[in-house]
Amino acid sequence: MNLKEGIGKSMNKGISYHIITIVAIFTSLGIGIFIGSMLNGEKFMMNQQSRLITHLEENLKIQKQENSQLKTQIGQLSKEISHQEKIIMSIYNNDEYGETQEWKTD
Question: Phi/psi zone of residue 99: left (φ > 0), alpha (ψ -120 to 50 degrees), beta?
Fold first, then answer.
């Protein structure tokens, strides 16, 4: 083996070791960036879920209040309907016998 061949082989080994080292460094860097982004993404998802839960709880509270108000209105309207039906039936029954009657309205 001459000197040129020996130097060439040793340089090829040196360059291949450098290339392997550079590839390993960039692979490690890529894996680190990937893991870091996953951890940050998890925090982001947790934050988004927390906001969504808070928003849904607020909407549920509003819906319960509206439901309660509507039930109260239904009760009041039912009482009014019942009262008006009694008046109508009384007027209808009194008209059959030629009587009239005045009603108090609440």
Answer: beta
Give the residue-averaged pLDDT of 76-86.
93
Would you say residue 47 has pLDDT above 80? Answer: yes
Q: Which amino acid is at 80?
A: E
Mean pLDDT of the chain: 81
First to last CA, the chain: 121
Q: What is the pLDDT of residue 102?
A: 54
- Which string of b and e fits 11-42 if b means at least 16 CB within 10 Å? eeeeeeeeeeeeeeeeeeeeeeeeeeeeeeee
